[in-house]
Amino acid sequence: MSEQATAREIDRSKMQVSDQVAIEINNMNKWYGAFHVLRDINLTVNQGERIVIAGPSGSGKSTLIRCLNALEEHQQGQITVDGTVLSNDLKNIDKIRREVGMVFQHFNLFPHLTILENLTLAPIWVRKTPKKEAEETAMHFLEKVKIPEQASKYPGQLSGGQQQRVAIARSLCMKPRIMLFDEPTSALDPEMIKEVLDTMIELAEEGMTMLVVTHEMGFARQVANRVIFMDAGQIVEQNEPEEFFNNPKSERTKLFLSQILGH
Amino acid sequence: MSDVSFVRTEMLPEQAPPGSEVGVIGWLRHNLFSSWINGILTVLSLYAIYYVLAGILPWVFLSVWNAGSLTECREIMNATWGGTHGHACWGVINERWLQLLFGFYPSYLYGRPILALVLLLLALTPILFNMISRRMNWFLLALAFFVTAMLMDASIFVWILRIGFAAATLFIGYQLVTLSGSDRAEQIAQGAKRLPNPLMFTAVYPFLMPWLMWGGTIWPPICAALGFVIGFVVLRFGKDHMSELVTMIAAVAAAVIWWLVLSGYVSDGLSSVLPIGIEAVESRKFGGFMIAILLGVVAIGASLPIGVVLALGRQSDLVIVKALCVGFIEFIRGVPLITLLFVASLLLNIFMPPGTNFDIILRVMIMMTLFSAAYMAEVIRGGLAALPRGQYEGADSLGLDYWQAQRLIIMPQALKVSIPGIVSTFIGIFKDTTLVSIIGLFDVIGLASAIRADTSWNGIYWELFAFIAFLFFIVCFSMSRYSMYLERKLQTGHR
Ligand SMILES: Nc1ncnc2c1ncn2[C@@H]1O[C@H](COP(=O)(O)OP(=O)(O)OP(=O)(O)O)[C@@H](O)[C@H]1O
Ligand SMILES: [Mg+2]
User: Fold this and answer.
1) Which member of A98, A112, A155 has the closest CB to residue B399?
2) Per-residue pLDDT reduced to its tens digit, B359-369
3) In this structure, are residues B93 and B463 in contact, taking their beta carbons and an 8 Å threshold?
4) Closest approach of B242 to chain A, Cα-based (Å)
5) Whether residue A2 has pLDDT greater than 50
6) Given CA atoms A157, A160, A166, A170 in this order, what sign does their dihedral have?
7) How many CA within 13 A on the CB side of residue A46?
8) How confident is the model at residue A100 (pLDDT cuts 50, 70, 90)?
9) CB contact, 8 Å: B394 with chain A?
């Protein structure tokens, strides 16, 4: 896959990893019916870390990050997000969803609302922000993703890359402490991938904690401080990007990398 | 050898299309005579249209307007055209149209259903056309009330009403004329107070309408409205102490207990102590097209929210809720409306405690509402199914709770997708109101039979049914056009 993430120098100065724990997963297991989809997952993510999750299709990457904001429920083990333990208690789930933003492969913008309304909806209804303030925040983030002029359009009138940037801005409007990305560029044409990756890089530069499922290995190399390789519902290998790409330990990782990088 | 490389140095100017493509000739060619088969079909269709119109138009327009009976009509026809065939006798409509519209409603009280209809339209405008400004809406309302006050018999109280509404009408009207929409928007942006939302009146209307139609003291509708207030209060203050589901059940239970057990005594008591009200009209005097509109409006207005709840219930994870909704929907859809109406007219009294006076029109209203709610639920379920999973996930991931997600994200889209189906159900239930003639209510169909039973109009069919068809057509066609307008308005680009 493409190695080009960005041409410019990446400012790693602010990408500091603190020793505060953002996400902690202990012995987590999940089944779909009888199908054991996630097996004994253990993972600790510190505040400020950028983690890329890779792996073949069906390996459970999406399922893993969707468990983190309770879009899927897990049956065994414990997930702690930002100090809150994920349980069936709706109050905890709501609390975690407020702190965790998520960006989807297919954007999931609300087609009946304008871009601005898409951005202000959750702050107004969930955070109870006054409308005016919410709109100001929304415009701020739209400027950040470089499409303030689209504020009054509907999602259907935007290109895929623009829609994905709106989706990122929409999550940011909730001022999340952690961002989850599930293949944010897989539904996009090559020239739009760059604009979305650039936005994500900027976010990383500001010190956001990010978990990114992606096949963009260029992005992983440049931005991630850890790459996780999953297969058959397990974490097979995790390492710093340099080591991960240049010196993979497991056979499955090697096979995967050779396929995806076309060596 | 041909030269493969080619570079255009000059862009070609735009040219007018050839004459055969534009203008009347072009249009005819394109649409009516594009091939010889098409041409033959066009000619045949034109002949068919001519044939039908040649039959109907003379019947409608070469007709008798002033006649007191069918015999008189025929005499006039014989004298004028030398035969009775092919001429309508509108005399029956001319003589009985008020009855066809109002049934046996006392004629000196016709103003009340008319006012109810006008207010209905005004209560609907903020829902149907959100481009009408608040000022316009309140102006029209004030005007309607002012006109009503002017038509009422003068008394000191009426004079106070007249002056009050005249002042309100003039004040809002003056603002409307002197201040353009953008100026007003500017004022509001700078913090000027907005007029209250006209939906307030829409919320009051369901209680005002029955009072206007049936009359009596003002307490029964007020007590009915109190049920909602009680439910709301329980919902509001229960939330802090109980879980959401329990609170909701408690709120519904409190409201139902109020309506079924307490409100009757309270309103009777208040009515005897403070008999403020207008002349009561019994249900058996209701009739004509008025019944169709009354039943149609109630069934339409109530079935949409009930249908939404049923559709959501059917998708619910709560097994019992789901089973109840599925059972209800499938049962109602599996039974002909007419049997439900017979249940309403005959059986329901058996289940009621003896001595309860459960109004027949109210019973029919409930049955028609439940009937169309079941269909509505299925139409809306179709709309829900058309939504991609991602919309729910998008809403969830932003932290919206179930009801917020439904109200802000899911329902607006699901309802929009289902507009054609919803409006079809509306039109269907509106036309089905004519079935009440079978259980002995005098709606238009029932009245038509009654009029034919009259010796002077014995034997007249077409004119009555043509008139009834015309009335229904106007309403149904308007609904259909409105749904098309709404679909266009809600179009926000492809997904
Ligand atoms: N709702 C579901 N019910 C049953 N099985 C499911 C469900 N969702 C996913 N699965 C299965 O779980 C496994 C993991 O799916 P998941 O979507 O997490 O994979 P992924 O690693 O994200 O793959 P991809 O790269 O294709 O997105 C797959 O085998 C899939 O078939
Ligand atoms: Mg996936």
Assistant:
1) A98
2) 888 889 999 99
3) yes
4) 14
5) no
6) positive
7) 11
8) very high
9) yes
Output the six-digit token pair for B291. Answer: 């019944």
For the stretch B215-246, pLDDT in tens is 888 888 898 889 999 999 988 888 777 777 78
Q: Which residues of B255-292 are buried (b: 16+ CB within 10 A; e: fewer)?
A: beebbeeebeeebeebbeeeeeeeeebebeebbbbbbb
The whole-number pLDDT of residue A88 equals 76
- Express as a percent the part of chain B with pLDDT over 90: 34
Give the separation between CA B150 and CA B109, rounded to whole angstroms.
15
> Which residue is closest to B397 within chain A, CA to CA?
A97
Closest CB to B397: pick one of A97, A106, A110.
A97
Q: Which residues of A touch B388 (CB under 8 A)?
A: 106, 108
Write the DSSP assignment of A136-162 as a string of letters. HHHHHHHHHTT-GGGTTS-GGGS-HHH
Give the CATH architecture of domain B92-105+289-387+419-490. Orthogonal Bundle (1.10)
| CB of A63 sitting under 6 A from ligand 1 | yes
Q: Radius of gyration of chain A from Cα atoms?
A: 18
A62 token code pair: 């999406």
Output b/e per residue, B206-240; b: 16+ Cβ within 10 A: bbbbbbbbbbbbbbbbebbbbbbebbeebbeebee
pTM: 0.84
- B402 vs A: CB within 8 A: no
| Burial of B26 (C-beta count, 10 Å sphere; 0-12/13-18/19+) | middle
Token pair in block for residue B138? 């309140």
Q: Residue A184 corresponds to which amino acid?
A: P
* Chain A touched by B490 (CB under 8 Å): yes
Mean pLDDT of B466-481: 93
Note the ligand closest to the C-alpha atom of A58. 1
Subunit contact A98:B404, Cβ cutoff 8 A: no
User: Looking at the predicted structure, is the pLDDT value of residue B422 above 80?
Assistant: yes
